[in-house]
Amino acid sequence: MEFYPTLLFITSLLLLSFPFLGALLRRHRRLTCKCDTCRSFVTAGWSASFPSLPDWYSHLLRRSPTATIQIHVLNNTVTADPANVEYILKTKFDTYVKGKPHSVILGDLLDPGIFVVDGDHWRFQRRLASRELGSVSVRSFAFDSISSEIQLRLLPLFSTFAAAGASPVVDLQEVFRRFAFDNICRLSFGIDPACLGSALEFADAFDVASKLSAERALEPAPVIWKVKRALNLGSERRLKKALKKINLLAEDIIRERRKVGFSTRKDLLSRFMASITDEKYLRDIVISFLLAGRDTVASAITVFFLLVARNPEVESKIREESNRVLGPGSPAQLPTFDQLKEFHYLHAAMHEALRLYPPVQIDSKYAEADDVLPDGTWIRKGDKVSFHPYAMGRMPQIWGPDCLEFKPERWLDKNGAFCPVSLYKYPVFQAGFRVCLGKEMALMTMKIVCVSLVRLFDIRLVGPVDPPRFAPGLSATLKGGLPAEVRWWKGGCGGV
């Protein structure tokens, strides 16, 4: 009986000493570039001169002659070299895996979903997802769902904002998160949670679960969050409650779907049911797609409007292109699936926004064996090896001396047609064997949302959002949101 008070005392001491432990680790943590000409050490903490941690990493990677740095105390190598990225994601794919540390941190939320597993589990889910997401019927279903959500909810909501006499300040990031959640719920589960209207409990639970899962990685020692989980304390208690809500709702949906039948439905859950009978496995797989589809799309649309609002000449060119493709007489008209393919400049602007502000700013693998990267960096078995899409978008040796400028034209040829680049220099959608299967669907969603809003509304930012500052999380989220005023564009129709 005396064991439990003693354990509780030790645990409380650990939790109370957390700020001190964190400061101590930051004080002694050291980082070095693994190269012959750069052996200087710097404190592994980012100073106030950098808006966010990704900007500090970008600074260090630009200073490294090999575009690679090693944080030895964390056994972590971070690279912004496209040759290294190709080597990690393709050439030595089986050597660099998600690994157990990754699945332990995110396992309660996503395991055994495709984003945290390796081996046979990953191959099975990859084949299944590739077959379904690549099908014409699923893409058609997705396009119809997006169009319906825009026409019935998003445009009327923005019309309400624009019609308000006092020009209320709106958090666009929150609006786009709700829109993306509604949309991905329809695609994944075939349900409409109506997050642009009400019933936000499910979405709120997702927010809490993803935020707290990501914060596990920020603990100075994994034992801290593991003890909190074992004793059901603090953030781990809140995470447990959020996960319970998510899982109960998902299980209810699956049971109901089996009762009414699923063979004629087009959502991912119904299509996966034909191949998976284990309901927990099915639930976790679909939740993985739900989480990824909501956060990444919402982040991408948010930063697009952040950049377009700062660059009115880009906004004007998108409107000119939309008039050319859709005609100037009907601003409220949504593009068809085929018409979206004609928006080369918009497509370039989307890629440029994602180059500068990718939804996933850094991604990591773990080495299964000792190895040497193409730039000569030594890797030990068990080391964490990360590539940094955010920093790669800011490397002059990849994008030129104007790499910090928002310049959609860099993606266009002399005839104005979109020109893709190697995914290894632009790993925003991953690359190699784990390249994002939902890439085309995500771009389709982003384009139809953006062209629909730009043709009708003037969106102007409010408050200090330059430079953007990001909150820790599984995907890029702006601290403080994206406050803006929404007004009718004088060239639009003034109502929908």
From TrEMBL:
Q: What is this protein called?
A: Putative cytochrome P450
Q: Molecular function terms in GO for this entry? A: heme binding; iron ion binding; monooxygenase activity; oxidoreductase activity, acting on paired donors, with incorporation or reduction of molecular oxygen
Gene name, please?
Answer: CYP5
- Keywords annotated in UniProt: Heme, Iron, Metal-binding, Oxidoreductase
Q: Is ATP-binding found in the keyword set?
A: no
InterPro entries in the record, alphabetically? Cyt_P450, Cyt_P450_E_grp-I, Cyt_P450_sf
The record's annotation in Pfam families points to: p450
Q: Does the keyword Iron apply?
A: yes
Q: Which parts of the sequence bind heme?
A: 436
Q: According to its UniProt record, which protein family does this protein belong to? A: Belongs to the cytochrome P450 family.
* Cofactor(s) named in the record: heme
